[in-house]
């Protein structure tokens, strides 16, 4: 007795299809429950209806259907789409507002993507232009975002969006400690080694002309004007720039930046502003330390390799350099700091929801920052030459 009841219940909820064909008119009356548990029983029959040929008018009556879910709506939409492509007129009657909305949603989701055929024989030129075009648009978006961050930074801390300004000294000092104090050992080590290498190679070449003393001029001008600040900026881009991107990117992944916006705080003021200010303060100071380390390394190598005493080295440097030589390098430091911080922040804010995206943007941050820093250094060199500075 119990088995008969279950059988009757299953027959009652099973989907039903009654179809009539009158010439080029196909009428389908659907009944029962059309959900993911039952539509498998009528899928093969619906496919036969999909393949009916010569249909100019398709009428679907849903007045007897008791319940639909996405699976049932997809079968109905597949039937409609098959005959619509063949040029048939589709009429749906008896559908409740909920079923109509479901059919519309399924139709939007199942819309086919048209594959654009790849041209034959011209793949390489077209792919090259495609890459250039995408790169230009991406560069434009990055530039606009960079100007937004720079403008917000110049305007002030803006901890609260549109409601006053504030600067958090504790956050700035904390970032200065991370980016400045922590970077001193590696900056001093690398700068001293570079200064020593420049002095050794310069002395080796100048020895043929009996002018080893001019290695002091070479080291002093090259380190103070170019190498000191450029090498420091590159190391900070790799060390602190990647850290900024990783920190902001991880906050973006965990939706902490969205949480700041929800509670009324400006993410630029809270996260980016302290880091940019800290970089602008720290990078010139690190450049000064790098200059001393590079000159110290060159002085040691000159003493050992060329026999130039420390006093002689200092006396020659006093005549070789002047205040403009020192300022030429230090003037570039704040600009390079802004470039590193802005690029790192932009890449951090572009991070998606995956660890792969975080790694890609950290890499892009370091590469872009180093590239732009070198380009800006070259522009400064051209500008200094033009004004004879």
Provide structural commentary.
It is a single chain. The chain is α/β, with parallel strands linked by helices. It contains 14 helices and 4 strands. The protein has helices at 2-13, 43-50, 70-85, 97-109, 123-155, 169-179, 184-206, 215-253, 256-262, 267-306, 310-320, 323-330, 332-349, 355-387; strands at 16-22, 25-34, 57-68, 89-93. The chain has a 4-stranded mixed sheet, covered by helices on one side. Strand 1 (16-22) and strand 2 (25-34) form a beta hairpin. Helix 2 (43-50) packs parallel to helix 3 (70-85), helix 8 packs parallel to helix 12 (323-330) and helix 13 packs antiparallel against helix 14. The protein is elongated, with a radius of gyration of 36 Å. The chain starts with a helix and ends with a helix.
Question: How do the helices and strands line up, and which of them pair or pack?
Answer:
Elements: H1 2-13, E1 16-22, E2 25-34, H2 43-50, E3 57-68, H3 70-85, E4 89-93, H4 97-109, H5 123-155, H6 169-179, H7 184-206, H8 215-253, H9 256-262, H10 267-306, H11 310-320, H12 323-330, H13 332-349, H14 355-387
Parallel strand pairs: 2-3, 3-4
Antiparallel strand pairs: 1-2
List keywords for this structure.
389 residues; alpha/beta; 9% strand; 14 helices; 4-stranded mixed beta sheet
